[in-house]
Write a structure and sequence with these properties.
Blueprint (H helix, E strand, L loop, with lengths): L2 H17 L14 H5 L11 E7 L22 E8 L12 H4 L5 E5 L2 H5 L5 H17 L3 E5 L8 H18 L3 E2 L25 H20 L2
Parallel strand pairs: 1-2, 1-3, 3-4, 4-5
Helix pairs in contact: 5-6
Keywords: Hydrolase, Signal
GO molecular function: phosphatidylcholine lysophospholipase activity
Protein name: SGNH/GDSL hydrolase family protein
Length: about 230
């Protein structure tokens, strides 16, 4: 390995170790392919499709995630992949730094945040909900439409996660923001993961991701058609 490359690798590893966050997965930022981009109309949508981006933490980029196995792989009718703006370890407030990136192609942005507010910042559900609501508002201010996505369960903060989802769902209904529930299928009554659906108690494993992706594929076409 060349000296400069070796130093760069060591710097990245040191940064990851120093962060101390549970979101250790890399943060992909993938956009539509050149062939898809070439089909865009002036409205920012491909012919007959809605451009769908995501803004969130590691839950949307974890290997085999619900987003990778629905919008990103092209299996959601009526949707074309927009910006993949997923940033592990970031709270809802920190994610505001990537709103401009996530909304760059217009269309619809799926917003999923709040886990790190609870887990890393120790925020109560009400404060975490306010941060997510502000994030949705920032997306709208940048000219894109939002779909608010439910927060996955937690092995250690199940009650708080349930409360956060209840607050976000009620806020979405009151403000006319579409609500995408990708987590009911994987959540036990106490807000923890159903058995066998998470290996670390935070992120979905392959089985959990498959159920969440199925929920996204089942709901998104209807939500997009109504927007």
């Amino acid at each position: 390995m060349k000296p400069l490359l070796a130093l760069a690798v060591l710097a990245v590893l040191a940064s990851c170790s120093a962060s101390g966050t549970h979101d250790a997965a890399p943060s992909p930022s993938a956009t539509a392919s050149p062939s898809q981009s070439a089909s865009l109309h002036s409205s920012g949508h491909p012919s007959g499709l809605t451009r769908v981006s995501v803004l969130g933490d590691s839950h949307s980029s974890w290997p085999g995630s619900w987003f990778e196995r629905s919008v990103a792989d092209g299996s959601v009718p009526g949707a074309a992949l927009g910006v993949f703006s997923s940033h592990p370890g970031r709270t809802s407030i920190a994610l505001q730094a990537w709103v401009a990136e996530a909304t760059a192609q217009g269309g619809v942005v799926l917003v999923q945040a709040g886990t790190n507010d609870l887990l890393l910042d120790g925020a109560p559900p009400a404060r975490a909900a306010q941060g997510v609501e502000q994030l949705v508002g920032a997306v709208s201010a940048h000219g894109a439409e939002s779909v608010l996505v439910s927060v996955p369960p937690s092995a250690t903060l199940g009650t708080a996660t349930n409360q956060l989802n209840a607050l976000l769902k009620a806020w979405a209904a009151a403000h006319g923001v579409p609500w995408l529930d990708v987590t009911s299928a994987v959540t036990a009554a106490d807000g923890t993961w159903r058995p066998g659906l998470s290996d670390d108690g935070i992120h979905a494993n392959a089985s959990g991701g498959a159920l969440m992706a199925e929920a996204a594929r089942g709901q998104l076409p209807r939500l997009l058609a109504a927007m």
